[in-house]
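User: I'm writing a tutorial on reading structure tokens. Could you give me a worked example: one chain, its sequence, then its tokens, then a sentence or two explaining what the tokens reveal?
Assistant: Sure. Here is the example chain.
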Amino acid sequence: MTMSIHDFFRGRDVNIRELSDYIERLPSTIRIEEACSLSGDEQSALWEVSAGFRPVTIEDFVPASVPAMTQVIHHGKNSLPMFSRFQKRFCRPDEPGSTELWGYNHQAMAPFTGPGYFVTRDAPAGEVVIDYLRVPPRKPHGWPKIMPNSARLSRFIYYLTQDFMRGVSTHVTIGRATRKGKPMDNWFVLCRED
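And here are its predicted structure tokens:
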């Protein structure tokens, strides 16, 4: 019988170390498929067991070897019932010594919701925050026009939100959304594309 990521969530406590090892042994395309198949309940459980497991920094999202203003794609799935698949695209700014990343959400509903631009930085406790309270001043060529997160339907999705990210493996992180500093019942998993 073939093993899947869901086996780690069936009828017992999630062994985060074994799950992390399993994810990293997968080929890149299978890793993305497996990570993005997690249900909302599995994402919630993963958020809880990943606390303090693998500290992350912005270099887990854009490795130091990637040139400035070059996008790195993270495939994602959130715990919402509809429109749950998306990508977060990150880049390192072209500002020497910068300690943040710039990015936006690439997804099917973007014509209505806007691109959801954000700034990403290291946060306490070995986490990273994807911060929609700020938008980048510039963007790489080919990214959509920068809009404030208070515009259009963005106001109901990105406005006044911050996502906190925890490490699961070298490629996979788990996030939880907050609005006005209060945790929401909304989780999502990201898997970095090689």
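What the tokens reveal: The chain has five helices and eight strands. The first strand starts at residue 72 and ends at 78.
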